[in-house]
Amino acid sequence: MKLLARRRAVNAAMTVVTGLAVVVALVPLALLLWLVVSKGAAGLSWTFFTHLPTPVGEPGGGVGNALLGTLYLVGLACLVGLPLGVGAGVFLAERGDGRFGSAIRFTAEVLSGVPSIVVGIVAYGLVVVPMRRFSALAGGVALGLLMVPTLARTTEELVRLVPGSLREASLALGVPQWKTSLRIVLRTALGGIVTAVLLAIARAAGETAPLLFTALNNQYWNFAPDQPTASLTVQIYNYAISPYADWHQKAWTAALVLLLLVGALNLTARFLTRSGLPREQR
Amino acid sequence: MAKTHIDKSYEAELGALREQLLEMGGLVEAAIAGSVRAVVERDAVLADLVIRKDKTVNRMEVDIDGACRRILALRQPAASDLRFITTALKIVTDLERMGDLAVNIARRAVDLAQAPALQPLHDLGRLAALSEAALAKALDAFVTADPVKAEEVLEADDHLDALYLKIFNHLLTTMMEDPRTIRRATSLMFSAKHLERFGDHATNLAEMVIFMVRGTDVRHSKNKA
Amino acid sequence: MTAPADKIAVERLTAIFGKTEVLRSVTTSIPAMSVTAIIGPSGCGKSTFLRCLNRMHELTPGARVEGSILLDGQDVQGRDVDPVHLRRRVGMVFQRPNPFPTMSVLDNVSSGLRLNGIKGDHQATVEQCLRQAALWDEVKDRLRAPAISLSGGQQQRLCIARALAVAPEVLLMDEPTSALDPIATAKVEDLIHELKARYTIVIVTHNMQQAARVSDQTAFLYMGELVEVGATEQIFTNPREPRTEDYVTGKFG
Hints:
By secondary structure, chain B is an all-alpha fold. Chain B is 86% helix and 0% strand.
């Protein structure tokens, strides 16, 4: 009986300790949210989403071009990163058991550990230098390259999670292997892959470093892939390092917008996973 | 069949069934020996004992039947186990009938003991010995799963039949010579007939043992040949 | 009764994984329109034998096959035989129900047709196959429901219907009831009795009583060897081989 009482006491103590740990861990997150919302919300208005930035001192203006630029860059990044990442992932899962597969897997592992600014330099060397100008394309390539390794590994894991029995069921129906991979295996893993893609996009949208010397920045609307493009992150960076209180306010608001964008993507991903298609086979 | 079942309780159930059948066989063997001795030695007390002991045989028949049904339902026996169980189910019926035959002879013995002795009964004693031996051998064949012994039982049945015929003719002559002997002679004749039937049942057992061991049915094969 | 023609003739079939011989020189034949059961302890090569018949075995890396398997007299391993085409003739049902989780009941049944590029309205085929699989009455009101919303037993019958939809001649069943409860098992077994009028069925089972209940012919495999094959009644009442005897009476395995 004494033992039981002791065990109960230890149990209660540990519950309190772990609960406290959770609270402590949540504090920075709550602070971050509170800071960004409290400081940024003041500048939030419709024009902030739709208008071009204004020079110092001039009231109004917004980050419309930067918001659009971020979406544009992310779109370009998807064009580069999705086929490469998902394709490599499917390959690794279906045929990646040999030496070639492990080589790719190793490369992906190394790549995912490379600092994003290094990837930016690579894109600079690959695109900016030959084109002799900063461009949206260069930014897209940089973000796209960043997406590839994580996408490849998560896609591989997700495809591997598809029970082999489904593949066998399809093959036993006389369905060719390639069709089985595409129509059954990939289809079953699709829900998870979409989630992974959304998370990769959210991560890419939050990158600043690789954009600094690829997409650079732009004070105006831009739709041309060979021209520099504004982005929320770089815009925030520029506003934040400026000496003007006015711009500091705009940096907070832009940060809030970015937070909303990334948050929305994360929530969508979460929602998709929950109502998710690839349910565990019982 | 040196190998034992993985499931030891199953093995034990089959073993127990085999033991029960042997015990019942032993009782029937003793009954037939006792009943014929009662006839030959004019011992009504012994005859009465045989009659009373048949209750045990009857009870064992019911018990063994139940055990077989239980194993069939719960164990789904296959192959040699299946043949053993189905054989046991039939053997037990034959054994019970054999017990009844011993009782019939014992009843005759009670009658005969009250009347004057008719004649020496050497042949009846020999017939009893043959029937008893047939049962003993059939049971032995069953226990040791030895089809060769079982075949010997089948062969011995011919001697048994011949001896019965001899006794039958002898008693017939006795009755024709002296009609006062008819009652006693008929009793003896019935006893002999019962012993002959007893031998037939032993033959049945032997045939079943052959089926059980070899899986081939030897019944009625004489008719075809 | 005349002996039914052999649908499949297996001659000296040896199956190899890497350096291990999983099956050693198995020779037997499988009569048409009947149920052949394969019994034997785990790892005796039952499933491998089955998977050789529709060339699923060769999908495993390092797997090789020697000897011949004749389907209607034609070697299924011949160079001119497309395994994809063969698998449409020799359907398969697996140990665990494996309906496609992203598809409805209806789509699962028609999946073989659709994935093989056969166009048209498959509604009639779906109904016919579901009826054949004794599932129609249970699912006719929820054909659009996800296949994984069905119970395990229903899922397995759905998989049988799915296999039937591509109109196979042979149906291979790899322990089809090992993941099902007794009632669902009884339904599948009943179904096997129905199906044998139209299909040649080969069933692998761990459950000897099941083999005894559903099959006409039983083959006993042990450590990659075919120990004995014969009429099911003979195997279970009077096997010729001592090893078969010991296995069916529960003395080893």
